[in-house]
Amino acid sequence: MRAPNDDATPRRPLIMRILVRRAAYRHPRAYGGACLAAGLWVFVLGVILCSYGFWWGALLIAVGALELWVAYHLLVAPLPRRVRELEQTRARAVDDSAARLRRIERDLHDGAQAQMVAVAMKLGLATKRLGGMIDGTGQTDLERVLELVVAAHRGAKEAITELRNLARGIHPPVLDQGLGIALTTLAARGDLPVKLDIDLPERPSAAIETIAYFCAAELLTNVTKHSGARHARLEAAHVPGLLRVRVSDDGCGGARIEERGGLAGLAERIRTVDGRLQVSSPPGGPTAVTIELPSHA
Amino acid sequence: MRIVIAEDSAVMRAGLAEILADSDHQVVAAVGNADDLLAAVDQHRPDAAVVDVRMPPGYTDEGLRAAIAIRRDHPKTGVLVFSQYIETRYAADLLGAASGGGAAGVGYLLKDRVADVEEFVEALSRVAAGGTALDPEVVTQLLGASRRSDGLGTLTAREREVLALMAEGRSNAAIARILVVSERSVEKHVGNIFSKLGLPPSDADHRRVLAVLRYLES
Q1: For residues B186 and B182, what is the distance between their CA atoms, to the nearest angstrom?
Q2: Which of A117, A154, A157 has the highest number of chain B CBs within 10 A, making it the mutation to test binding with B?
Q3: Which ipTM score applies to this complex?
Q4: Do residues A254 and A283 make contact, with C-beta atoms less than 8 angstroms apart?
Q5: Would you say B53 and B41 are in contact if contact means Cβ atoms under 8 Å apart?
Q6: What CATH number has the domain bearing residue B179?
Q7: Structural domain range at position B67
Q8: Alpha-carbon distance B213 to A217, whole Å?
Q9: Interatomic CA distance for residues B66 and B82, integer angstroms
């Protein structure tokens, strides 16, 4: 599947479709630049020849003008559309990071924060009891106090675990050592056997590594949660300019990009850096999700 | 006291129930959202409700709105609102609703305060009895946010301490105990504060708080 905003490619003028190969549109700056340079030379040469009385110089002028026109269509005409696209992806990136922060706040609020208040409550109760025992005003009930302290101790340990998981969810420290090591750790941590195939001779930029890592993490979680697969495979390859990560499984298939679904969320995050997400998941499986990201955001 | 608890976190709910039971109060219902809270209050007519501000489904201020509704519909039920953060705005809304009903019976505390069991239970009793309990944090924010520093500027350090405790909803006797002074001297400080801020003196605790807050917010 192509990223949705690719579908909206505007209709090209007929003459452009005849003159320019589709490939030119993938690298508009290279092709457009060449057309511009060649067009200028041919045009100027034509004008000079005409001024010396060679009538066929007019042909060169016409060819040069055509090349300049093509260059215009490749370089200048797409700019408003590109600006609109960038505005949209920037807005999505801002929304995405705001949503992330909100989620972290919620996790803290409902998790470790609540847990620690409960711990403090239990210790408060225990203190009250012990105080009563020492003053001789309360009844001696050491077992109850022990129970409270044990519960508080357990709660504190749970809060520590929650905080650790949350911190890792914000930025896994292992990512600092490189995407390859981080993905290896990720694959080893899950319940499902994951076959790894990593070929990362050079490191992409940090932002790209982070996006790739979290996408891989979410995709592997999806495999465990939804596919019923017995094996998964995680591939990551970096060629100059492009990082490709692929998660596949032998599960039940039927994964789709749905509005507000997990995959749509991933696709949005990937699009903020001009990347692409492709899903191949026929009913009955197998499923393969491929992510392509530029090396540098 | 008969108490209803509304708190969406199960851990906190259990902890609160434990604390209240330990202090010989009766928890008649413990619920996890605002609608259930209103239903429980309708059914049990408790002396007090302990209400978390953020609850499902929206996780914004459902609890606060329910608290205001309870104060409107059930004047005999005191409402102690608590949350992980203090929003001065919420305190103002709550006290505004309370003064409209003619009685206070509201409190607003940080969840952390629950850890000091006796103080928390005392604050809840105060609220159930129609008094006020404001978190020291709220008072600090209100004191800090006050634009009318001219009047406050004339207060002595001790008078400011007394004002802060008054704003929390403490009685003169409680203030005397906390500051380790005689009740007589607290009365004198309170008189001085009222005259310096140009407020008419009054006996009722909650009215003092409302007067002080109204002054601080203006």
Answers
A1: 7
A2: A117
A3: 0.72
A4: yes
A5: no
A6: 1.10.10.10
A7: 2-134
A8: 51
A9: 13
Per-residue b/e over B137-170, b at no fewer than 16 CB within 10 Å? bbbebbbeeeeeeeebeebeeebeebbbbbbbbb
Write down the residue that tokens 């110089």 correspond to: A57
Query: Can you give the pLDDT at residue A133?
Result: 85
Domain membership flag for residue B140: no
The pLDDT tens digits of the residues spanning A222-251 come to 898 888 888 999 999 998 889 999 999 998
The reply to whether residue B54 touches residue A155, judged by beta carbons under 8 angstroms, is: no
Give CA torsion, residues A132, A136, A137, A140, to 10 deg: 60
B 18-77 → A contacts, CB under 8 A? 18-19, 22, 54, 59
C-alpha angle A181-A208-A32 in degrees, rounded to nearest 5 = 140
Q: How close is the nearest chain B Cα to the Cα of A139, in Å? A: 13
Total-model pTM: 0.68
- Residue A25 CB neighbours (<10 A): 15
Q: By three-state DSSP, how is residue A152 classified?
A: helix
Q: For chain B, 218 residues long, give each residue's pLDDT as a single digit of tens.
A: 999 999 998 888 998 999 999 888 999 999 999 999 999 999 999 999 999 998 888 888 899 999 999 988 998 899 999 988 888 778 878 877 766 544 578 899 998 888 888 889 999 999 998 888 888 888 777 666 555 555 677 788 888 888 888 878 888 899 999 999 999 999 898 888 877 777 766 656 666 776 676 666 65
Yes or no, beta carbons of B59 and A118 under 8 Å apart: no
Q: What angle is formed at CA B179 by the lines to CA B173 and CA B182, rounded to 5 degrees?
A: 50
Put simply, whether A114 touches B (Cβ < 8 Å) is yes
Sheet holding B48-52, edge to edge: B26-31, B2-6, B48-52, B78-83, B106-110, B132-134
- Is it the case that residue A185 has pLDDT exceeding 50? yes
**Do B110 and B151 share a domain, yes or no?**
no
Q: What is the pLDDT of residue A5?
A: 42
Q: How far is A168 from chain B (nearest CA, A)?
A: 23
Cα–Cα distance measured from residue A56 to residue A45, given in angstroms and rounded to the nearest whole number: 11
CATH number for the domain spanning B118: value is 3.40.50.2300
Cβ–Cβ gap B18/A125 under 8 Å = yes
| Rounded Cα distance, B184 and A189, in Å | 67
Residues B84, B121 within the same domain: yes
**Quick check: B18 and A128 CB within 8 A?**
no
